[in-house]
């Protein structure tokens, strides 16, 4: 197993903008660092769990029926489009009210399964970095551990950045602009997935 290449892959995919990073930064800006910790842990633990599950079973299903993976991309993209709309158009008073709550730990864990980028990262890592020699099960666990080790600081960085903006965003006008920007960024993070879907359905 090429550990250096795998670590670079982990860092590159974990630090770049994507649904998880955009949403955890938005949570930090709207709810603060401490209240967003369950959301943070749900990402950092939920993704490695998903990677193990895909690596040990679900990946074979997608190899046998690629259309299932395509439909999962479509469903996930539609759901994330809905979330982007909700973030971009959320009334500012919703975030100021006491009833407004950040994503819970279990919600963040479950969110990984509708996140197209998470699926691509999991399948890409398992297919690319496992080798024929050695225990396949052990290799999948190592990949999951490396994502937890090197991916978690990336998620914390996005949360910290969002929470550091909280005072600035106490101004409703700025908060509204921030939420709109995050909604648009969330949509932009889907462009590679949408491009792949277009290629899948295009006819040569």
TrEMBL record:
InterPro entries: LeuE-type. It is found in: Cell membrane. The keyword Repeat does not apply. It is a multi-pass membrane protein. GO terms for biological process: cysteine export across plasma membrane. The keyword Manganese does not apply. GO terms for molecular function: amino acid transmembrane transporter activity. The chain crosses the membrane at residues 40-62, 68-85, 105-130, 136-162, 174-194. It comes from the Bacteria. Keywords: Cell membrane, Membrane, Transmembrane, Transmembrane helix. One of its GO terms (cellular component) is plasma membrane. PANTHER family: ARGININE EXPORTER PROTEIN ARGO, ARGININE EXPORTER PROTEIN ARGO-RELATED. This is LysE family translocator. The lineage of its organism: Bacteria, Pseudomonadati, Pseudomonadota, Gammaproteobacteria, Oceanospirillales.
